[in-house]
C-alpha cells in the first residue's frame, strides 16, 4: 500500500491507519535481516520507515490526541538503532574525507581499521541480533496500537492545519539559520523541510503535477542541508582520527568554503519553497483536495 492518501479511504483516520500499517509491516520485515551486509540495508530501511511514520503523524498532529504517545514510541525505537547507524556512518564519513577532500589515506589508516572493526562488531549476530529483536518487539507493539489511532475529524480539518504548522516551522527555522549561521540551526531547518517533504508525498494525489514539482524542491533542499551537516561531522571525524597541523587547517578551510556555498544555495532554494505564508499554502492545498474529491 502506498504512502499517500486515496479517494477510497473512507476517512482520514482510515488513511492514517492504512499508511501506518504499511510502513510498520515493511519495517518489521527488515528486522529479520541476517548477516552484516543485509543488516546495513535493513537498518537504513527501518530508520526510513520510522521517519515516514513520524512525518505522517506530524501531518495530523493538531487533530490526533494520541500524537505524543505515538511520536515518543517511534522516537525511542529509532534511537535504539543509533549505535548501528553511528558505527556505519563514522566509517563512511572517514572514507568521504579521503574521496572528496584528498586527505592522505595513510594518515587515517589505523583509525579507519578501528572504525571498520567497530562497525562489523556492531552489525554482528552477537550485537545486532538482540538489538534488532528488541526493535521488532517495539514495532509490533506500535503495529497493534496503530489500529486504534483515531483523528478528531474525517476530512480536511484532520490534515491541513498540520500541513500549515509544519510549513510555518520550516520558514521560522530558515530565518533562524539565516541569522545565526549555526550548524545546529541548519540541521533543525532540515528536519522541518524533510517533514514538509513527507507531507507532499502523502498529499501528492490531490494535484500530482503541482505537488510533485514542489516536493522535488523540498527533497533537493533537504539533501543539501543534510550535506551541510555532514561537513561538520567530517571535521569532527578528522580531528578524532588524529589529523592536525597544516593538514587539518587546510581541510577545515575547504569545509568552510563548501559550507558557505551550500548555505547560499540553500537560502535561494528555501526562498522559493517557503515563499508562501502557512495559511496561504494550507488554504490552496485544501482547495486542491476538495476539487480532487469531486473529480
TrEMBL record:
Superkingdom, natural source: Bacteria
Record-annotated CHAD domain positions: 9-286
Gene3D superfamilies attached to this UniProt entry: CHAD domain (1.40.20.10)
Xref: InterPro entries: CHAD_dom, CHAD_dom_sf
PANTHER family registered for this protein in UniProt: CHAD DOMAIN-CONTAINING PROTEIN, SLR1444 PROTEIN
Annotated protein name in UniProt: CHAD domain-containing protein
Organism this protein belongs to: Celeribacter indicus
Species classification: Bacteria, Pseudomonadati, Pseudomonadota, Alphaproteobacteria, Rhodobacterales
Amino acid at each position: 500500500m502506498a504512502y499517500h492518501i486515496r479517494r477510497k479511504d473512507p476517512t482520514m483516520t482510515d488513511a492514517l491507519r492504512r499508511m501506518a500499517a504499511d510502513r510498520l509491516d515493511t519495517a518489521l520485515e527488515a528486522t529479520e535481516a541476517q548477516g552484516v551486509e543485509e543488516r546495513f540495508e535493513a537498518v537504513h530501511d527501518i530508520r526510513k520507515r520510522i521517519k515516514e511514520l513520524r512525518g505522517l503523524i506530524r501531518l495530523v498532529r493538531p487533530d490526533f490526541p494520541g500524537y505524543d504517545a505515538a511520536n515518543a514510541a517511534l522516537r525511542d525505537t529509532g534511537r535504539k538503532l543509533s549505535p548501528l547507524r553511528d558505527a556505519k556512518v563514522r566509517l563512511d564519513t572517514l572514507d568521504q574525507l579521503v574521496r572528496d577532500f584528498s586527505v592522505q589515506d595513510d594518515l587515517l589508516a589505523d583509525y579507519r581499521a578501528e572504525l571498520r572493526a567497530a562497525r562489523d562488531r556492531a552489525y554482528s549476530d552477537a550485537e545486532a541480533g538482540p538489538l534488532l529483536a528488541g526493535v521488532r518487539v517495539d514495532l509490533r507493539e506500535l503495529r497493534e496500537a496503530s489500529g486504534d489511532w483515531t483523528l478528531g475529524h474525517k476530512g480536511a480539518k484532520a490534515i491541513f492545519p498540520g500541513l500549515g504548522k509544519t510549513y510555518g516551522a520550516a520558514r521560522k527555522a530558515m530565518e533562524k539559520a539565516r541569522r545565526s549561521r549555526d550548524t545546529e540551526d541548519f540541521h533543525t531547518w532540515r528536519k522541518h523541510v524533510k517533514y514538509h517533504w513527507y507531507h507532499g508525498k502523502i498529499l501528492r494525489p490531490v494535484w500530482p503535477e503541482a505537488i510533485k514539482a514542489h516536493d522535488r524542491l523540498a527533497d533537493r533542499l533537504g539533501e543539501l542541508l543534510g550535506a551541510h551537516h555532514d561537513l561538520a561531522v567530517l571535521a569532527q571525524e578528522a580531528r578524532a582520527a588524529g589529523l592536525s597541523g597544516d593538514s587539518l587547517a587546510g581541510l577545515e578551510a575547504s569545509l568552510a568554503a563548501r559550507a558557505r556555498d551550500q548555505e547560499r544555495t540553500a537560502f535561494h532554494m528555501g526562498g522559493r519553497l517557503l515563499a508562501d505564508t502557512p495559511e496561504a499554502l494550507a488554504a490552496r492545498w485544501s482547495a486542491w483536495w476538495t476539487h480532487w474529491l469531486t473529480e
